[in-house]
Design brief:
With 401 residues, the chain is an alpha+beta fold. It folds into three domains: 112 residues, Beta-Lactamase, CATH 3.30.450.20; 91 residues; 162 residues, 2-Layer Sandwich (Heat Shock Protein 90), CATH 3.30.565. 46% of the residues lie in helices and 20% in strands. The strands form three sheets. Strands 1, 2, 3, 4, 5 and 6 form a six-stranded antiparallel β-sheet that branches. A five-stranded mixed β-sheet has the order 8-10-11-13-12. A two-stranded antiparallel sheet has the order 7-9. A hairpin with a 5-residue loop joins strand 4 and strand 5.
Length: 401
């Protein structure tokens, strides 16, 4: 017998570890999982609506704000989520939308309302988009419950309306009060002067002095009433902003003070040239007039008033400065200087009502600016105010369109 042949042992094959199958289908599944997680986490109700108006998809927040379950909404006419009065218009709008789908927002300019399962209505805003599916276009609605925002807007609108009414009432009251109060003052002053003339030589010097005191008091009261009316109007009247050369504003203010300038031999100068600014011309002339008048009035004995006006750009603002060589102001009074009826000096030495700076501040703030001063006692003062071009330019531009 032939010897048995020995078989040569074959090397054992190693088992290959199967690799995960990463094909297009699994990638799509992963993408869909991520997309669904984002949609479910959204803080707005998201619905997909087919061309026949039926709901084909919704996220969890839809259930929360409308009170329906997914099972109750799926396949239903999406008009179920609107009050009955909106449904006919909604159906027409849906047909129009599918005819020319686009991305848009509804509810910013018109009042829209949603309807919960329990019948409660609430204000909504809807963002619209669309996707192209195999069966046609699908509309996507992103619905926000804007109850809190609408309440805030309504409260603000109500407060603004009340403020406008209050300002109108205040202006009317100030106007009526000023006229009603000035008439008796006029009568008192007229009769006192008549008494002084008619009994000239029959009254002693002290009696004539008493009459002068009474006339002076009535005159100062009339000035207070007029300044109070000006202050009221400065705070309630809307600024009529236009582009105007600052040179014209300064010239008008100086012209209005011509008598005081000549009486005190004052010198009023200003930079050349001056820029064009956006402002209410009448109101800004009042500011410049008040500041220049103070520079002329509050002077050291025997000193000739010197007032200089300059305008320059500081950052994004135009800054007006009115510098004088007067008695100056102690910095300790910085908190008082712009208060109404506030006086730092005796009225017999420096006459006035103490309203000039308060009026100036009110007007500057009406323009969206600010006013301040720099001064040292005995070394004069510089009052400055700003006109921010942002608000002024916006108002001017709106009028120029």
């Amino acid at each position: 017998m032939a010897p048995a042949e020995k078989s040569t042992p074959q090397p054992e094959r190693q088992k290959e570890t199967p690799k995960p199958l990463l094909n297009q289908d699994t990638a799509l599944v992963a993408s869909e999982i991520h997309l669904r997680s984002y949609i479910e986490a959204a803080l707005r109700a998201i619905l997909a609506v087919s061309q026949d108006g039926r709901i084909v998809f919704m996220n969890g927040h839809t259930e929360e704000i409308f009170g329906y379950t997914r099972e109750e909404l799926f396949g239903q006419d999406s008009a179920i989520l609107l009050p009955q009065r909106f449904r006919a218009a909604y159906a027409a709008a849906l047909r129009t939308y599918f005819a020319a789908p686009s991305v848009r927002v509804l509810g910013k300019d018109i009042d829209l309302a949603g309807r919960r399962k329990n019948g409660e209505e609430f204000p909504i805003e809807i963002g619209l988009s669309y996707v192209q599916a195999q069966d046609g276009v699908i509309a996507l609605g992103f619905v926000s419950d804007i109850t809190d925002g609408k309440r805030v807007r309504d409260d603000l609108a109500h407060a603004n309306a009340e403020l406008r009414r209050s300002n109108a009432d205040l202006e009317q009251f100030a106007y009526m009060a000023s006229h009603d109060l000035q008439e008796p003052l006029r009568i008192v002053t007229s009769y006192l002067k008549l008494l002084d003339r008619r009994y000239q030589g029959q009254l002693d010097a002290e009696a004539h002095e008493f009459i002068d005191f009474a006339v002076d008091g009535a005159t100062r009261m009339k000035g207070l009433i007029q300044d109070l009316l000006t202050f009221s109007r400065a705070g309630t009247r809307s600024a009529d902003i236009h582009n105007v050369p600052a040179e014209i504003l300064v010239q008008r203010a100086v012209e209005n003070l011509k008598a005081a300038i000549e009486e005190r031999s004052a010198e009023v100068t200003w930079d050349q040239p001056l820029p064009q600014v956006a402002a209410d011309a009448g109101l800004l002339v009042q500011v410049l007039q008040n500041l220049v008048a103070n520079g002329i009035k509050f002077q050291k004995d025997g000193a000739a008033p010197r007032v200089h006006i300059s305008v320059g750009a500081q950052g994004s603002e135009w800054v007006f400065s009115v510098r004088d060589n007067g008695i100056g102001i102690d910095p300790r009074h910085a908190g008082r200087i712009f208060r109404i009826f506030e006086r730092l000096n005796a009225s017999d030495q420096y006459p006035g009502t103490g309203m000039g700076l308060a009026i100036a501040q009110k007007i500057v703030e009406r323009h969206g600016g600010r006013i301040w001063f720099e001064s040292k006692p005995g070394e004069g003062s510089t009052f400055s105010f700003s006109l921010p071009p942002t608000g002024s330019a916006r108002a001017a531009t709106a009028r120029e369109r």
